[in-house]
Amino acid sequence: MGETPIRFGILGCASIARKVSRAISLSTNATVFAIGSRSVEKAQKYVSANAFIPPSVKIYGSYEAVLDDPEVDAVYVPLPTSLHLQWAVLAAEKSKHVLLEKPVALNAAEFDRIVSACEANGVQFMDGTMWMHHPRTALMREFIADPVRFGSPKSIHSTFTFTADPEFLKNNIRAKPDLDALGALGDLGWYCARAILWAVDYELPKTVTAIKGTVFNEAGVILSCGASLLWEDGKVATFHCSFLSNTTMNITTTGTVGTLHVDDFVIPCAETSSSFLTSTKTGFSELDTEWKPLPSEHVVTNELPQEALMVKEFARLVKGIKEGSLKAESKWPVYGRKTQLVLDRVIESIERGYESVEVVD
After folding, report:
1. Per-residue pLDDT tens over the stretch 329-343
2. Helices (H) and strands (E) in the chain — how many of each?
3. What are the chain's domains?
């Protein structure tokens, strides 16, 4: 007999939940066990529209009913950010492991309350930053951690943008202050900030300074913004995130002897094949007409998409905790909290007229 899969409950029928529902179905150690929405009819319609959800799924007309189901092991929470604190804390108190969409919270204080509830109840917390689980990410990490090929990090630049249509800018939850008040900063800037922290092995910067030119909608939600980060040893980073520019999602990080560049770090251009570029000790030909050596392209193939790998790892941790062989993995709250702190400081800098603000953990 096969092992019993981790049984997921999903709170809400957000569009991103379709992607994660598929990821759960593709993983080998998890299953969509229950769907909860604000009405049974809405949940039923969602299930009918998604063939990868098993027909045996339980359908509930409230989020509370999912959390009260004793057979549900873990919950995936794709609700608007303003609802994360309420439902993630309650899920933890009901002893459900929590896979929570990003941004995790509206600020670090809320983040801390969510993680404290998870820790107090012995459940695993993980945020839904999918690219962290792609095998390409581990290979890129090997390169930038190599003192011979990369050296010490000196600069990091990250961009995540897409052009939202008028309907999105008017009605999407990410443009509404009562639902996702962080707007593009929370939705896209989260990835940029995480990429920067990832590149420096999660060392927090000394200061964060928002870059002038933030664009707000009429309700005061950020549609486009950027920031610069500075470390005590002189490392620098910048990022830009926007709902108003063509789709771009890149990281360029430069060390004393090497450079890494990736064009599609958030969502790979192809689901099962991706690449990145590296160069080491780059120079020029005698007449400065060519690069020597040329950058190297590294192609990575993967059987499962990154979101399925995320689910698989989360379910592995949950299974270990249930069996008593593992404790909750603490690195995910640490990575998430540092990301949240950077976003907090960007907001503070904007509110203070684009002054530099210190980052205090």
Report:
1. 999 999 999 999 999
2. 11, 18
3. 6-130 (3.40.50.720), 132-306+340-358 (3.30.360.10)
